């Protein structure tokens, strides 16, 4: 397995682990009716969380090759691998068209 695939997988696990905590901290730090001191405290708590627990750090990668571009989100497979799988008949209901 590629190092990038492992790194991306660990990021996905961290995002799932800290998702609710991160959302709470963000909501409190953006709420305008609270005092600035409370908002700033939650902003600091948010900044102390791991950077890899942020959803924007997750990159869609092909689960077979680790390719970061042209990945179909539904299958998490790149266009190259999906074409190979379709031509071999491994994807049900999809066949490679030719004329």
UniProtKB/TrEMBL annotation:
- Keyword field contains Transferase: no
Highest taxon, organism lineage: Eukaryota
PANTHER family referenced in this protein's UniProt entry, alphabetically: 30S RIBOSOMAL PROTEIN S14, RIBOSOMAL PROTEIN S14
Q: What is its main location?
A: mitochondrion
Q: Name one GO biological process term.
A: translation
Q: Which family does it belong to?
A: Belongs to the universal ribosomal protein uS14 family.
The name under which this protein is listed is: Small ribosomal subunit protein uS14m
One matching Pfam family is Ribosomal_S14
What is a GO molecular function of this protein?
Answer: structural constituent of ribosome
- A GO cellular component entry from the record: mitochondrion
Could you tell me which PROSITE patterns the record lists for this protein? RIBOSOMAL_S14
């Amino acid at each position: 397995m590629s190092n990038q695939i492992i790194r991306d997988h660990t990021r996905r696990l961290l995002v799932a682990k800290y998702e609710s905590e991160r959302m709470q901290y963000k909501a409190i730090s953006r709420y305008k009716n609270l005092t600035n001191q409370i908002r700033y405290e939650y902003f600091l708590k948010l900044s102390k969380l791991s950077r890899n627990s942020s959803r924007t750090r997750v990159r869609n990668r092909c689960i077979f090759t680790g390719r970061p571009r042209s990945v179909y989100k539904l299958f998490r497979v790149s266009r190259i691998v999906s074409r190979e799988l379709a031509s071999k008949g491994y994807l049900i209901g999809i066949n490679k068209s030719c004329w």
